[in-house]
Write a structure and sequence with these properties.
The chain is α/β, with parallel strands linked by helices. Helix content is 50%, strand content 10%. It has an eight-stranded mixed sheet, sandwiched between helices. The relative contact order is 0.09. Bound molecules: nicotinamide-adenine-dinucleotide (NAD) and uridine-5'-diphosphate-glucose. Residues 3-184 form the UDP-glucose/GDP-mannose dehydrogenase N-terminal domain.
Length: 335
């Protein structure tokens, strides 16, 4: 049994905290958002996620899971700290690392014993892991070590608990082999392949995975435009392609394009990572452009079907808000 601090109890952090507690560890979730911690202490989950309320309740009741706003409290006996804070996009598309850097600083200041720091947030390669490791080293008390392990998360909103207990793989990137092994041991009960690699490769694996899935979606949407012009059925085409195991049936559903909290930001961030290194990725820009065009197309079609003036932002902004963030809102004509 390990003592684990989970920093940031949003989608990823709360799911990680509850699942690690279910595996028998003692987990303390810490968040700077006091309102969120108050809700969690009252047994309420701040967002809708199947299976999570029951999992949180069971583990709180068993004394394996608690929540606090205090890093000191969370770090008191921690052998491991999982950083699960947000990395939202900046206007230039780069991932904003400020939450991660502040979390690392607070973890190091509050650490009372050596521990492994696990970076679960999606963070770009190209110096960020090195910067986080330096922040840790600069703020730890003398005699305390905190090796950094990059361990990106692949869960989907809506099946977060299932995905956490049934991962296709875990990716563990570290400079310190012993720290990597300690993280791998934590996942051993899940019986999935574990890739042990360096931090930059682990970071890029996460972006490449999301960009590949986004590419499949943009690809099928591109084919749907051609299909429409030749009178072919895109659903039949996707099914026919999907039977080929080398292609796979998943993420071939054409529609409004990809949205959600990760694909749009992560494809943009990967383009930005490449550009920062002096490489313009025409390919990734095409994936983003096709996606944006798909929403425009849908809005235009709706306009044609309803008669242009009928399409008003208020007419279906309510419908869109029932879905996760999409890029479509920006294509709706204003009333
Ligand atoms: N949501 C997903 O489906 C998903 C899946 C895989 C990876 N990710 C990645 O995981 C990371 C977290 O995503 P999320 O969706 O859980 O974000 P989120 O916004 O739901 O949660 C982040 C939490 O961190 C807290 N926080 C911010 N700064 C803090 C600090 N200094 N100390 C303590 N708490 C702090 C916030 O208050 C918030 O509750 C991101 O990098 C994201 O890209 C998300
Ligand atoms: O065939 C498809 C499949 C998905 N989508 C859209 O793609 C977006 C993303 O869907 P999904 O992957 O189911 O949800 P997310 O919760 O955004 O999860 C993605 O983003 C997470 C954050 O990085 C990753 O951890 C997950 O592995 C990755 O699937 C949504 O807008 C879907 O409507 C399509 O348009 N066509």
């Amino acid at each position: 049994m390990k003592h684990i601090a989970v920093i940031g109890v949003g989608y990823v952090g709360l799911t990680t905290a509850a699942c690690l507690a279910e595996l028998g560890h003692h987990v303390t979730g810490v968040d700077m958002d006091e309102g969120k911690i108050v809700l969690l202490r009252q047994g309420q989950i701040p967002f809708i996620e199947p299976e999570l309320p029951e999992l949180v309740e069971r583990n709180v009741r068993a004394g394996r899971l608690d929540f606090t706003t205090s890093y000191q409290e969370a770090m008191q006996h921690a052998d491991m700290a999982f950083i699960c804070v947000g990395t939202p996009p900046t206007p230039s598309g780069h991932a904003d690392m400020s939450q991660v850097e502040e979390a690392a600083r607070q973890v190091a200041l509050a650490a009372t014993q050596s521990l492994v720091v696990v970076l679960k947030s999606t963070t770009p390669p190209g110096g960020n892991a090195e910067r986080v490791a330096a922040i840790l080293a600069n703020h730890l008390s003398p005699g305390i070590d905190a090796p950094l392990v990059v361990n990106p998360e692949f869960l989907r909103e809506g099946s977060a608990v299932y995905d956490t207990f049934h991962p296709d793989r875990v990716v563990i990137g570290a400079w310190d082999a012993a720290a990597a092994e300690r993280v791998a041991a934590l996942y051993a009960p899940l019986r999935c392949p574990a890739l042990l690699t360096d931090p930059a490769s682990a970071q890029l694996t996460k972006y490449a995975s999301n960009a590949f899935l986004a590419t499949k979606i943009s690809f099928i949407n591109e084919i749907s435009r051609i299909a429409e012009r030749v009178g072919a059925n895109i659903h039949a085409i996707a099914q026919g392609m999907g039977f080929d195991e080398r292609i796979g049936a998943e993420f071939l559903e054409s529609g409004l394009g990809y949205g959600g909290s990760c694909f749009p930001k992560d494809v943009l961030a990967l383009s930005a990572i490449a550009e920062q290194q002096g490489y313009y990725s025409q390919f990734l820009h095409a994936v983003t452009d096709i996606n944006a065009g798909q929403c425009r197309l849908a809005v235009e079609k709706l306009g044609d079907a309803l008669g242009g003036s009928m399409v008003r932002r208020y007419a279906f902004s309510g419908w869109l808000s029932n879905h996760r963030p999409t890029t479509c809102a920006s294509h709706l004509p204003c009333p």
